[in-house]
Amino acid sequence: MSQSQKHILVISYSQTGQLNELTQHFLQPLKQQENIVIDECQIEPIQPYSFPWKFIPFFNQFPESVHLKPAPIETPILQREKYDLVIIAYSVWFLSPSQPISAFLQSEQAKILKNTPVITLIGCRNMWLMAQEKMKKMLTALDANLIGNVVKTDQSNAWASFITTPAWMLSGEKRYFSWLPSAGISDADMQDMQRFGYRLVQILNENQPLDKSLFQNMGAVKIDEKLMMSEKVGHRSFYIWGKLLLKCGQISPVFRQAMLYFYIVFLIILILTVVPLSAVVKRLLKPLLKEKLARQKRYFAEPSGE
Questions:
Q1: Quick one: average pLDDT of 260-281?
Q2: Do you find a cis peptide bond into 45, omega within 30 degrees of 0?
Q3: Which candidate in 172, 220, 231, 261 could, as Cys together with 304 as Cys, close a disulfide (CB 3.0–4.6 Å)?
Q4: How high is the mean pLDDT of the chain?
Q5: Collapsing DSSP states into helix, strand and coil, what is residue 209?
Q6: What is the pLDDT of residues 56-85, one digit of tens each?
Q7: In the prediction, which pLDDT does 2 show?
Q8: 41, containing H or E segment
């Protein structure tokens, strides 16, 4: 078999370091191959985001995140004009791709994705469907070819992570509460990323086409039916309030901050009421919506499939 050299570009931004760890586990099998050359490009915001976050600056990111109006980044330096494959690793901010990744996808350098296979790697708490929908649209606009998606989510259940993830973001400590599980992705799930890296090595070394069959039937993503409706409701709320806060900011930064405090209270109430209510409604209607839910799950799971 021919072992022709393959060039891979990895685009990523990791604020906490967790996404870097996830990406490196995926890349480990590829880095062992002499015929695979990997260029890693860490996106750098011009104004770095602090970690841990401060409370108000954290929430103040959501209007721009949701409306894909990211803060500027340093111009990425790419080593080649064309790659055989591009891997985009990103985390989810307010049901949207993180601002640095959105900024890259709107940059001049993102034109390198044209007619190029792309794999997305996502590390997040538990909701990623709406973020990946935005990613798909941005990739389509760039004429990129999304062939695979691998997602790893928080090891805690939804209610525990509702407490542990914000505590981690605001304190920098994964195990802030001793009586709750650690925030973040489990070590086992981190290690599991290598399985997908080995699969990619196999395809590249056998000179098979890089297409949507790459990670199918490997459990690359898991769709939680209970969260599908919640994500749609949450994103609609983010979109409307984000637009309002952007308008408020044009009038006065102080006015925007005052409205932001009001929205934080609204958001907490929304999470504590609408999210569980939508889960109950979906459970009650599940027998009637079985086919529709199955179609939605198949759609959101593309291109890798569950």
A1: 80
A2: no
A3: 220
A4: 92
A5: coil
A6: 999 999 999 999 999 999 999 999 999 999
A7: 47
A8: strand 36-42
Average pLDDT over residues 197-212: 94
| Contact criterion met (CB below 8 Å) for 204 and 240 | no
Instruction: In whole angstroms, give the CA distance from residue 190 to residue 178.
Output: 22
* pLDDT(18) > 80: yes
Q: Tell me if 135 sits within 8 A of 166, measured CB to CB.
A: no
CA distance 13 to 123: 11
The confidence score (pLDDT) of residue 275 equals: 67
Q: For every residue of 84-145, which 3-state class applies, written as one string?
A: CEEEEEECEECCEECHHHHHHHCCHHHHHHCCCEEEEEEEECCCCHHHHHHHHHHHHHCCCE
- Planar angle of CA 213, 97, 15, nearest 5 degrees: 110
Tokens at 272, concatenated:
């504590």
Residue 32: how many CA atoms within 13 Å on its side-chain side? 11
Which one, of 148, 41, 45, lies nearest residue 98 by Cα?
45
Contact assessment for residue 279 and residue 226, using Cβ atoms and an 8 Å cutoff: yes
pLDDT of res. 3: 63
Q: Could you read off the pLDDT of 77-86 as tens digits, one per residue?
A: 999 999 999 9
